[in-house]
Every structure is written in C-alpha cells, then in structure tokens.
C-alpha cells in the first residue's frame, strides 16, 4: 500500500503520454502555470482563513470572566 493512489510507474507513464497527446507540448507549460497559480491562490485563501480563526480566538481569549461578572452586576442594579 505504498503506492501513490495505487498507481504504478507504467501507469503514470501511460497517463503522461496520453496527456501529452491530448494537449501537445506547447500547451503543457501554460496548463502547469495556470495550475500553479490556482494552487498558490488556494494556499493564500487557506492562510487567510487560518489567520482569521486565530484572530477570532485571540479576541475571545482576551475577554476575561471578570468582564462578564461586571456586566451581570450592572444589569442586576
């Protein structure tokens, strides 16, 4: 089970040859460039989401139970 998605090297070579026949040698660099941009954009989006989650958790950690007790006392008056 050490195979990458159960693909052996001959299968990968056949897939690469079919890919080359379908798109041609000139189109492949353009496709890879587009794929790279898409991956980079996805990673940037994931980093933004992670940063927003971290920011949200630090804001909630800064709030102390003391603040909520003071609010309860004020509302009781």
How does this model look, in words?
With 77 residues, this protein is mainly alpha-helical. The chain has one domain. It has helices at 9-62, 65-76. The chain is elongated, with a radius of gyration of 26 Å.
What is the residue-averaged pLDDT?
79
Oligomer: single chain
Largest beta-sheet characterization: none
Strand pairing plus helix content: what structural class?
Answer: mainly alpha
Please, how many helices?
A: 2
The sequence of SSEs as H and E is HH
Radius of gyration: 26 Å
Give the count of structural domains.
1
Q: Short description, anyone?
A:
With 77 residues, the chain is mainly alpha-helical. The chain contains 2 helices and no strands.
Helix/strand layout:
Blueprint: H1 9-62, H2 65-76
What attributes characterize this protein structure?
mainly alpha, elongated, 2 helices, 77 residues
């Amino acid at each position: 089970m050490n195979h990458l998605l159960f693909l052996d090297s001959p299968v990968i070579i056949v897939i690469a040859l079919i890919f080359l026949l379908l798109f041609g040698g000139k189109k492949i660099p353009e496709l890879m460039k587009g794929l790279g941009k898409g991956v980079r954009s996805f990673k940037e989006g994931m980093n933004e989401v992670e940063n927003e989650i971290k920011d949200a958790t630090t804001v909630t950690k800064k709030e102390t139970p003391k603040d909520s007790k003071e609010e309860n006392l004020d509302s009781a008056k």
